[in-house]
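User: Some background: our group keeps a shared notebook of sequences we're curious about, and every so often someone picks one and asks for a predicted structure to add to the entry. Today it's my turn. The entry only has the sequence so far, pasted here. Could you supply the structure so I can complete it?
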Amino acid sequence: MEQGFKDPYNFKYFVGFLMALALPTLPASLTWLGVLAS
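Assistant: Of course. Here's the predicted structure to add to the notebook entry:
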């Protein structure tokens, strides 16, 4: 908890990094969701 308050920008960069990693898998995930939902 304390580290989150000490380095809020580091947390933002970490979340942004995870989002950047997840972006390439987004179309595939949406496709699978569409296939499973139909």
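Suggested note for the entry: The two ends are 42 Å apart (CA to CA). Helices lie at 2-6, 8-22, 26-37.
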